[in-house]
């Protein structure tokens, strides 16, 4: 759980990497004292190499006889392929192979939920930048020149880029344009309230925008298979998808996880693995690719652009009676994880509020826009911006303080979601909102020369100081934990102990959530062993599933805990038998084993001397079920909540916005690593601020405009507000290992809605679109 620890090092096989044994030493093993166990601020093992620039990522990999790959991409969002001529490219100096759809020996398409996305477009291109062919050459420049020399004749077709028009448009795919429709009906659909407010909201297309280069290396194997070194967050699924396209059994393909340079969902596709694997097997040589920034923007999935229509009904006291909503997600050209995003959007469309009656319709459709997929908080973030806009409208209509209105409607443990599911986990929403509401507001800037930096836009960025208005906005957000709708969440872990050293083997990818650190903490606390190694990940290990939604903290951490406890029993049983007592009467603390009565006292090192112990265990949470034809069902394992208060300064003449402060309260279940938890929350809030104000991937008629960091503005250190974590509620979720909840996603979901509410309060404008453009914040008064 750290905002900088975002990768896992170590590789095996032909590729060069460090350390050679594929494990990483804890800082304590390097002679530096550090705290131990759960609840301590244990430093990530990769913190120093990342700070020093020595941590190996996929872009750093090298192999003997290395070739370089490049991809030819479609310049049209929608077109029919008439012909593909690769002869000129294949004849260029240094070119070793060219592959197209005709060279895919197995399944032509892949996909995590629906196998609808071609490895290479064969007959039709459905989005701008879709891969058509790939080239392997001796030099990266030669590969790019050859890719550019591939001649493709197109019959350009009119793209469908408006999701509302997708319903009536000609099918863009053999499966049709409608990916999913969820009609949620809860309570009496005919009930009305004394007060009704309506709103139309739009959320734009955000990109995961990983700073690290997206890269991979494929190495052919003597048995006809291939090893692929890449920053995958779900290696076993990637292996299975790639193997199906290669026409090979899964055991002939191995995915080795390299350091992951940030992952907000964009690492969950097979866009690099399939072309590289084909080229490596065709040439018999290792093949590497490193995407340019433009290719990165074009190649991976983005957050679903969303159109939301809402109508809230309430009584005269502001208590919600009914919520009506229509939610339309733009899924882009292919299905990806759009079904999951829609389920979250519809299920949480009313927010963490008690709503007796609800009529929610959600759709996700195909268009010729760039593909949409899993990005942190998908579905939940979009609806949060809308339902909190509605709560602000309702508060204004009734003349009630916005925070007070929310308090009258908040959800608690035991309440029902509109899906009919009972909220059994801790849901201290009122406590969270009260905490941020009572936090003192930040002071106004003083009239000093330094105060120019505190105005919207910085020095010279504001028109007149007198045009600056301060606004305060509130938002409550919720997300689900783990997979949903019947997803089988299971993870396997092995803990081995040899003398004073323990090793954890688990295919849970360290993608920034801090799993490696957590695994060390679990073993340290359970076994009293200081030196704990975490092995690197590859598909020779049992699967542990994809990262995201806190699943590795919950499921993989639970598997590590169970394996460590099994080893603990193996360690203590001989001692307990010798003294005629049960293992439950022995404790391990500070490297010592003691009995309840003090008769037995020895060190863990002495008890382990000459022994090798190991155990393998699984963790599988309780099952869930798909939503039915009325949007009803127990679809989620658990939920997490947050309350955010945003304070902004707005230049109401120029529309520039400065986020002064974000105050946040969050239910975390249990704090496992205070320093990393704080860093994860702060990183999530900052990402939410970017979503609210700057991050927008511009697409015109299906064509991505300016795919670079000049046009796509990520928040910098100067844009990050003062983040005040005013309260962390540690009410443990009894069904979760350690009682902990995921912490990084719910701030991303909640912060944009709070910022929008604050800008609304300062400018008097409706502010119904994210990101907030300057013209939307200019006062009409």
Descriptive report:
This protein has 781 residues and is α+β, with helices and mostly antiparallel strands. It folds into three domains: 61-158 and 217-260 and 267-294, Aldehyde oxidase/xanthine dehydrogenase, a/b hammerhead (Aldehyde Oxidoreductase, domain 3, Alpha-Beta Complex), CATH 3.90.1170; 306-486 and 625-776, Aldehyde Oxidoreductase, domain 4, CATH 3.30.365; 491-619, Aldehyde oxidase/xanthine dehydrogenase, molybdopterin binding domain (Aldehyde Oxidoreductase, domain 4), CATH 3.30.365.10. The chain is built from 16 helices and 32 strands. The strands form eight sheets. A seven-stranded mixed sheet has the order 4-8-2-15-12-13-14. The protein has a six-stranded mixed sheet with strand order 10-18-17-16-11-32. Strand 20 and strand 21 (501-506) form a beta hairpin. Helix 5 packs across helix 6 (273-283), helix 9 (380-398) packs parallel to helix 16 and helix 12 packs parallel to helix 13. The two termini are 45 Å apart. Mean pLDDT is 90; it is low at 1-31.
Task: Provide key terms for this protein.
781 residues, alpha+beta, Aldehyde Oxidoreductase, domain 3, Aldehyde Oxidoreductase, domain 4, 7-stranded mixed β-sheet, 32 strands, disordered N terminus
